[in-house]
Every structure is written in structure tokens, then in C-alpha cells.
Amino acid sequence: LFHAQEYVKVLNEALEMAGNASPEAAEAIAKINEELELDYIREDFDKLLNSMGEGSGRIRSIVTTLRSFSRLDHSEFKAVDLNEGLESSLLMLQNKLKPNIKINKHYGNLPLVKCHAGQINQVFYALIDNALDAIDSSKKPGELTIRTASEPGWVTISVRDTGTGIPAEIQDKIFDPFFTTKPVGSGTGLGLSVCYQVIVQAHGGRINCVSRVGEGTELIVEIPLTNQRG
Ligand SMILES: Nc1ncnc2c1ncn2[C@@H]1O[C@H](COP(=O)(O)OP(=O)(O)OP(=O)(O)O)[C@@H](O)[C@H]1O
Ligand SMILES: [Mg+2]
Question: 40, 114, 201, 221: which is deepest, by most CB within 10 A?
């Protein structure tokens, strides 16, 4: 884009010089100008290039976010800052953050945790996604509270919402693959089953749900720091 801009600048200068050098050229240029609305194009072209530049900058930052979210640019098992993972998950869900949802963040001092960062970020994403859905379905303003803490041998991540809550009779089904209460087309029912696989099977951790209808839900993830491979 920079080169295109420079190119147009040089062309403009050449046109001007040609116009100044001979009256015939000036006349010809004036005619072309009339036909093509050259002045307008000149001005507009610069604006167009600028907005192309802005657009590609925005695309670049989206791609960077996606790469760091999925950790494409890192080896699979890596020591990462989980608070950062929560932040990028929130960023990915920006379009769901309505003004009537208050976000509380209580990030504890966490050690770097060796894990499959891309998978762990998917878990954070799924939990926050569900929490925002639950607040939205409650048709009331609500709060999302994210808390992290570390204790010897473990880190704990909690995602709590003041949404609809989960009826006791379905609380033990929520981690089942394809279990969903959402309308057809809006939920696959895979979010929490993937969380379970990632946390319990792949990382030897625990995931628990505490919920009360009408009050809200808290999903608590615990990841062990022992047996850290790599
Ligand atoms: N924070 C929450 N508050 C209320 N209900 C929840 C919450 N999290 C999960 N649920 C219930 O558990 C079900 C399963 O959740 P899960 O994330 O596995 O699937 P889903 O959200 O329905 O679909 P998706 O595959 O898009 O995540 C949900 O349909 C919902 O009924
Ligand atoms: Mg979900």
C-alpha cells in the first residue's frame, strides 16, 4: 500500500510537470480531468488506500489474537500464563459482552502452568461462553466473575455467573457430549464435554459445577502442577 501511495504521488507530480511544461499538455490534462473527474479520483484514491491500510492492520491484529489463542505458534505442551489465556478468551467473546453484563476479574498470582495451552484456552472460552449465554437467557442484568488462585500443587480457575442456573436434575448431564438445553442450531452440547476431556483426561485435573436455579452457576476448574511433563 505504501508503494501504491508513493506511485500515485509520483504520477501526480508527473502530471503537474507535464501541465506546466507545455500548454497543449495542460489542455489535454484538463480534458482528461473533466472526463475522469481526476481531481476527485486523486483525492479519493488516497482515502481508499488509507482505509485499506487500516483494514489490513485490523486483520493482522485479529490473526495475531487467533494465533495466540490457539497457540499455533508454539509447541503443544508449554508453560503459560493462564490469566493471559482468560483475557484472550474474553477478547474472543467481545461481541457477547453486553453493557448490562458486569465483568469482575480477580486474577491471582499464578505460576506458569505447563499445559496444552490451545486446549486450555478452548476450555476458558467454553465456560465464559456458557456464562454469558446464561446471563443473557435470564433477561436481567448480570455479573460474570472470573477468579484464579494458586495453592501448593494446584491452580484454580473459577467462572461464575448470575444467570439462569442449572436445575438439579440435569446438573449431572451437563458434561455429557451433545447434552444441550439450547435451541437447535445455537448449541451443539459439546462445550462442557470438551472441557471435561481437556481438564480431567488430558491434564489430570478436576472440573465441578455449583449451581442454583435463579441464582447462577459457578464452574470450577482445578489443574494440578504435579506431574508436569516436559
Ligand atoms: N453457566 C451456565 N449456566 C446455565 N446453564 C449452563 C451453564 N453452562 C452450561 N449450562 C447448561 O449445560 C448445557 C451444556 O453446556 P455445553 O457448553 O456443553 O453445551 P451448549 O452450551 O449447550 O452448546 P455448545 O456446544 O455451543 O457449547 C447447556 O445447554 C446448558 O443447559
Ligand atoms: Mg456451551
Answer: 221
